From TrEMBL:
This is Molybdopterin-dependent oxidoreductase. Belongs to the xanthine dehydrogenase family. SUPFAM superfamilies: 2Fe-2S ferredoxin-like (SSF54292), CO dehydrogenase ISP C-domain like (SSF47741), CO dehydrogenase molybdoprotein N-domain-like (SSF54665), Molybdenum cofactor-binding domain (SSF56003). One of its GO terms (molecular function) is oxidoreductase activity. Residues 2-79 form the 2Fe-2S ferredoxin-type domain. PANTHER family: XANTHINE DEHYDROGENASE, XANTHINE DEHYDROGENASE SUBUNIT D-RELATED. NCBIfam families: pterin_aldehy. Keywords: Iron, Metal-binding, Oxidoreductase.
Length: 909
């Protein structure tokens, strides 16, 4: 042990520490300075950055033996507080730079060190500084962070005042469309927004720490699990296997009726088989995480290894055994049957293109790894705190498996450091439940980044073959599609994501005749979970690429081909239904001048360059808001002495559910004179909040926005006096009238028929067009995205900071999907860097956002959603821009340099 005296945030603190422990652990766990976050724990993300003797250090990799005695340390707590914000924190808020907020303290600490030595940096200097400090953000696309530093520098130089920058709305004004700052921003920028691992430190002393025994192979029969040695290890309380699970030990995957599986493929703790690398086979519960981890190594698992099918084609091979005995590996099929038979048509058409395309297993890479805890409350209810973005779904999906009645399972969402959809699936909820039920004690489980990456779900890869034909006038006449969705071993939402192939291959265009067939395939690679865009990045990559190939074949401009074929008033989607609004031609009109200029620039730059080639291209972005069919959401509101309380389960990944709810409620309630500060929010705690459905499918702004609006309208109706004014709380009570009102909204939609793909599944859609400009290094094959210009139509913009943030973050994940990100190699793709997370150097600082605001008939105050549209097909524009730069078309993502280089070499032969 070492005794150290440290000068932390200006205060002398004495700590007794192990020499090997990290500074981050001492700050967080011994000094409770939880503003410093731990993401990767390996020096890759900068979430843990602090200033040590004037230098930014990643505190997760600084061992205490290396920290000098009397070191001066500044953490986020020393930079400013909620009552006394630093200029950087203030600037971070007004630029919407904290989405989930998990990376925020680390960035602000780095920025402070930079501005202390240079209060007038250039944007390039700021970017270089964040790169050097290894700060990584998965939500924002980085631009708002650089904007915030530049603004903070101006404030610090006295060139502008906070008063000038802070949005002050006149009394009674609407919040809609403004840059009002989200309610959680102040806590996020001060490091006081308490994430799961922070709350974990507040649990009672007898809390048990869980560590998992996980599979190290991808497919095997389990012969035996021997826990004897582990049980005798120091500090161990219990070692649990499937035998200790009181229920069916299965997660309910909510399978479609036509799914050939029963939806109960996924064990909570594996019993007979291992289905994927990382499967949880046993849980050790001990007094400390280290004791649990040491004991987990002593559990002996005897297995018989089986052939592992690591892709859809491998699992579909004739000789492949059934991964889930009794269920075929192809367990769900769906078709598209629209218009005439396409085969004879294709024969007769002058222009036909076809290709094979692949979009892979993109990893979500939130900076906060999965974390949660559980305990029983005084009424005997099991309370599970996690990163769930589907509270009521998840309770339903685990109740039988753990063996508790549904009404005894309550899930609460912790402040969450990003999910990007992986938390649409339950992850550790059932494990926590099993542990709490077995022991009756509070239990805590946190993943490290390796477990986060190897255990949690991934984007489901699509293997697609697409054929598209046009007549001599360039009008699309026929589309044939075939797609296989590799959904990993667990079926949950696999059928649903497969239907996206029928809904979005060819979306946005008038194509009267379509035949298609898609299937969901069980494999032994990482299980498929929702990922932002949910099937549309796969589907649209195929059809957008085919549009570009067709344009080349026809020798027409790809923008004009899109323009000529874009859906117009009254025309129908591949599902045979009308759109909510018809705006794609207008969006193309708006982008046309930018596109023309980009092409000119490419020409100029290519004239003077040999080793670098430049190209640009566009893609149409489009996605739906809602779960298929009659999706619905609920909210309630209550008038109180202090104002109005609004409650819903609009789960927050980081996208801004708090601001969405506040704006929807305020827009309705301001008729009765309520101001934003009169509105209190209760969000995401099943003990209090109703079933609003998951925050997936970009549905919440529309569905929960509408439910919140309806609840507020019902309240106003209940408060209304005969003279048209509204009763206050006292008057309402005095008249014996109710104070609480519910609101529910259901989409007037019908799910698609799996035999034909025909239906009217969604109430609202989001649209965009992206122009990508890239540079390809002809000697290395390396692509850099130089510039993006995106025009979006997400209906009425509810909050400008939120929508800008959604679009920037989504587009940058699209750069990742196109160029860098994958989870394929179980040895290499196990860290943030290994998986290819875009760092600030990988992302252009030149992104222009343009908007068209077409009010949606069914959207609350005309709004659509925004979350997923920007990741629906940006990668297609980037891939086609690479083609336009150097003649190489990458149809199997990502476009790693070696693939591009191989293409260049082939062309040069
Ligand atoms: N919004 C708005 N005006 C509009 C449309 C949307 O102000 N016209 C705002 C909404 O109020 C909301 C946000 O934009 O705060 C996104 O709205 P919506 O598209 O309805 O999406 P949800 O609230 O249902 O959020 C889920 C969506 C999905 S599916 C994923 S995945 C996702 C995402 O949003 N994951 C995210 N955005 C994310 N953002 C962050 N930072 N982290 C994630 O993990
Ligand atoms: Fe320390 Fe990632 S760099 S947590
Ligand atoms: Fe940066 Fe979420 S705001 S990771």
């Amino acid at each position: 042990m070492l005794k150290k005296i440290l000068n932390i945030n200006g205060l002398k603190r004495t700590v007794i520490v192990s020499p090997e422990i990290s500074l981050a652990d001492v700050l967080r766990k011994q000094l409770f300075l939880t503003g410093t976050k731990v993401g990767c724990g390996k020096g890759e993300c900068g979430a843990c950055n602090v200033i040590l003797d004037g230098k930014v250090v990643r505190s997760c990799i600084v061992r205490m033996k290396r920290v000098p005695d009397e070191a001066e340390i500044t953490t986020i707590e020393g930079i400013g507080s909620q009552d006394d914000l630093h200029d950087i924190q203030f600037a971070w808020m007004i630029h919407g730079a904290a989405q989930c907020g998990f990376c925020t303290p680390g960035f602000i600490v780095s920025a402070k060190a930079l501005l202390d030595q240079n209060n007038n940096p250039t944007r390039e200097e700021v970017r270089a500084w964040f790169q050097k400090s290894r700060n990584v953000c998965r939500c924002t696309g980085y631009i708002p962070l650089v904007d915030a530093v530049m603004e903070a520098a101006k404030l610090m130089r006295g060139e502008v005042t906070r008063k000038q920058l802070w949005l002050k709305l006149p009394e009674g004004a609407s919040l809609v469309g403004t840059e009002a700052v989200r309610p959680s921003a102040c806590a996020k920028v001060t490091g006081t927004w308490e994430f799961g691992a922070d709350l974990g430190l507040t649990l009672p002393e007898d809390t048990l720490h869980i560590k998992l025994v996980q599979a190290t192979v991808s497919h095997a029969n389990i012969i035996s699990i021997d826990t004897t040695d582990a049980e005798t290890m120091p500090g161990v309380y219990r070692v649990l296997t499937y035998k200790d699970v009181k229920g069916t030990n299965r997660i309910n995957g909510l399978a479609f009726p036509s799914n050939k599986g029963d939806g109960l493929e996924r064990p909570i703790l594996n019993d007979k088989k291992i289905f994927q690398f990382g499967d949880a086979i046993a849980m050790v519960l001990a007094d400390t995480p280290t004791h649990a981890e040491d004991a987990a190594k002593k559990v002996i698992v005897e297995i018989e290894e089986l052939p592992a099918y690591m892709s859809a084609p491998a699992a579909m091979a004739e000789d492949a055994i059934e991964i889930h005995p009794g269920t075929p590996n192809i367990y769900f099929e769906t078709k598209v049957v629209k218009g005439e038979e396409t085969a004879p048509l294709m024969e007769s058409l002058p222009y036909v293109v076809e290709d094979d395309l692949y979009v892979g297993r993109q990893p979500h890479l939130p900076i906060e790894p999965d974390v949660g805890f559980a305990y029983f409350d005084e009424e005997g209810k099991l309370i599970i705190h996690s990163k769930s973005i589907a509270l009521h779904f998840h309770a339903l999906m685990i109740a039988e498996g753990i063996g508790l009645p549904l009404d005894k399972v309550m899930i609460v969402q912790n402040p969450t450091g990003g999910t990007f959809g992986y938390k649409f699936s339950p992850t550790i909820e059932a494990l926590l439940a099993v542990a709490a039920m077995d022991t009756g004690k509070p239990v805590y489980l946190e993943f490290n980044m390796y477990q986060q990456i190897t255990y949690t779900g991934k984007r489901s890869p699509f293997w697609m073959h697409v054929k598209l034909g046009a007549d001599k006038f360039g009008k699309l006449q026929a589309l044939e599609t075939d797609w296989s969705c590799d959904h990993g071993p667990y079926c949950e939402f696999g059928d649903l994501v497969t239907t996206r192939g029928s809904q979005f291959i060819g979306a946005g265009y008038k194509i009267d005749n379509i035949r298609g067939e898609g299937r969901t395939v069980a494999t032994n690679h990482g299980w498929g979970s929702a990922f932002r865009g949910f099937g549309s990045p796969q589907a649209l990559f195929a059809s957008e690429q085919m549009m570009d190939e067709l344009a080349i074949k026809m020798d027409v401009d790809p923008l004009e081909l899109r323009y000529d074929n874009a859906l117009r008033e009254g025309e129908v989607t591949p599902n045979g239904c009308k759109l909510d609004v018809y705006v794609i031609p207008q969006l193309l009109d708006k982008i046309r001048p930018y596109y023309a200029k980009a092409k000119e620039n490419d020409k100029e730059k290519n004239k003077n360059s040999e080793n670098k080639r430049y190209g640009s291209a566009i893609s149409v972005l489009m996605y739906s808001c809602g779960l298929d069919g009659a999706d619905s959401s609920e909210a309630w509101v209550e008038i109180t002495k202090k104002g109005v309380t609004v409650a819903n389960s609009w789960e927050d990944h980081g996208q801004g559910a708090d601001m969405g709810t506040l704006t929807m409620a305020h827009e309705t309630l301001r008729k009765a004179g309520y101001e934003p500060e009169d509105i209190k929010l209760i969000l995401n705690d099943m003990n209090f909040t109703p079933n609003s459905g998951p925050a997936g499918g970009s549905r919440s702004n529309v569905l929960t926005g509408n439910a919140t609006r309806v609840a507020c309208e019902n309240l106003l109706e209940g408060l209304k006096k005969d003279d048209g004014t509204y009763r206050d709380y006292d008057e309402q009570i005095a008249e014996g009238k109710p104070t609480r009102y519910d609101g529910k909204w259901t989409a007037p939609c019908t799910a698609c028929d799996v035999e034909t793909g025909q239906g009217d599944p969604f109430p609202v859609y989001m649209y965009g067009v992206l122009l990508a400009e890239v540079e390809v290094d002809m000697t290395t094959g390396k692509t850099h995205v130089d510039k993006l210009t995106c025009i979006s139509d997400v209906g009425t913009i509810i909050n400008k900071l939120l929508v800008d943030g959604q679009i920037l973050g989504g587009l940058v994940q699209g750069i990742g999907l196109a160029l860098y990100e994958d989870f394929e190699d179980l040895k290499k793709h196990t860290t943030l860097t290994g998986c290819g997370i875009p760092q600030i150097k990988d992302v252009t600082d030149d992104i222009t956002l343009l908007y068209l605001e077409t009010p949606r008939p069914l959207g609350p105050y005309g709004a659509a959603g925004a979350g997923e549209m920007p990741l629906s097909s940006p990668h297609s524009a980037i891939i086609s821009a690479i083609y336009n730069a150097c003649g190489v078309r990458i149809t199997h993502l990502p476009a790693y340099p070696d693939k591009v280089l191989a293409g260049i070499k082939k062309l040069n032969k």
